[in-house]
Amino acid sequence: MLDHEYTTKDIFRKNFFKDWRKEMTAEEKATITDLKKCNFTEMSEYFKAQSEARKAMSKEEKQKIKEENERLLQKYGYCIMDNHKERIANFRIEPPGLFRGRGDHPKMGMLKRRIRPEDIIINCSKDSKCPEPPPGTKWKEVRHDNKVTWLVSWTENIQGSIKYIMLNPSSRIKGEKDWQKYETARRLKKFSIKFNAFCSSKEEGETADTVGCCSLRVEHINLYPENEGQEYVVEFDFLGKDSIRYYNKVPVEKRVFKNLQLFMENKEPDDDLFDRLNTSILNKHLQELMDGLTAKVFRTYNASITLQQQLKELTTADENIPAKILSYNRANRAVAILCNHQRAPPKTFEKSMQNLQAKIDAKKDQLSDAKRELKSAKADAKVRKDEKTKKAVENKRKAVQRIEEQLMKLEVQATDREENKQIALGTSKLNYLDPRISVAWCKKWGIPVEKIYNKTQREKFAWAIDMADEDYEF
DNA sequence: GTCTGAACTTAGCAATATGTGG
DNA sequence: CCACATATTGCTAAGTTCAGAC
């Protein structure tokens, strides 16, 4: 991790050194007293060399590794549930290492210990052949609980939380749950509520300081009776899940604005904004409004309804397939922005943008050359009037057309990439957008579903690809 | 009511695989 | 066919929800 920014952070270094010293012998402890004086370059070089060696391997060696991975997958990557062979999601146990919390995490750098068979609980049915622990070891427990979906669990040592091995998203059990999620969100359509919130509460000092709706503090909002020509504007600025910043200015109803003013009266910046509300009160209230309604349903609803509406708005009939796909990506992007799904701009972004621009310029030159050739071929044909020159004109015309299409494709690509610089589309696509909306859109416009969903996504959304026709309405 | 823990979903980053143009 | 760019997959942390203890 030597090259990583983590290692420059004080908390990371402090936590690492503290945990490392716990592992030392008395002698080591006496010798190694200052992390600054420790030199890890030799180890770092070793791993770098390993990675280089891996890259430099011959085709045959790479193929061998691939086959070995496939063998492991076949051996450990599947289970039988209700008589069906199902793919397991994370069948490899998490290796030991240094904990990398996100944001300002107080525990970053702590030693994540190796998981041993004695830490492992196996959950399988009574009549099944229970997996054997490695020779000379024992599982912590073997149980037969058919009220839960996990196959294996263990307790990790950083937060003391339980980790699980569960089934792949393509499995029946996950697919049905996913379907159910969207059905609940669809029922929200009947209500004309616009509500964009989520909740959380956490122990201080154990986690990074992030908030959700119920735990927003006074310091996270500013109120503007008037702002940029709009009335009753609330400015949000806080760190949410994964310490991703949420910044937005939202005009609200006067009544909401006045209430927020009241909630902020006589409070310190670090006081709770909603001090009489907690997640259980909120969820109880939501449950009364609609069966199955919880805070996160709004996110699913907002995302899916926005995709549907954006697709309607952005797709035009006479466009070609690449242009339609651009429209799809734009609709997807609108959702990602709504949900605040961000990503760090790729390290190679500027460079790859320049390269693409260079390609576009080259293509433009090529186009004007082709046009010039077409012109002279036409002139030629006018004079000669024979079959051969006529055919030449036709060929040149086709060439121009082809280059124009290529140019357009490149330009579309450039626009798409620029607009996507800091936006992550994957999260919404995978977790919030009812796949039946996308499938219906594909069917309606004759777009192969492979253009929208890759192999993994098609496996996860198999249920939707199967059931949605082109008239599907969310 | 309030707190805690178990179970499950959602999240962004990094490594790896694949595709493409020179 | 190679180098580079892009797409996909893997990884695991960080959320939400709900039930049950107190």
Automatic annotation (TrEMBL):
Keyword Coiled coil part of the UniProt annotation: yes
Main location: nucleus
EC number: 5.6.2.1
GO molecular function, a single term: DNA topoisomerase type I (single strand cut, ATP-independent) activity
Active site: Y432
Alphabetical keyword list: Biological rhythms, Coiled coil, DNA-binding, Isomerase, Nucleus, Topoisomerase
Matches recorded under Pfam families: Topo_C_assoc, Topoisom_I, Topoisom_I_N
Domain of life: Eukaryota
Protein name stated in the entry: DNA topoisomerase 1
Species name: Oryzias sinensis (Chinese medaka)
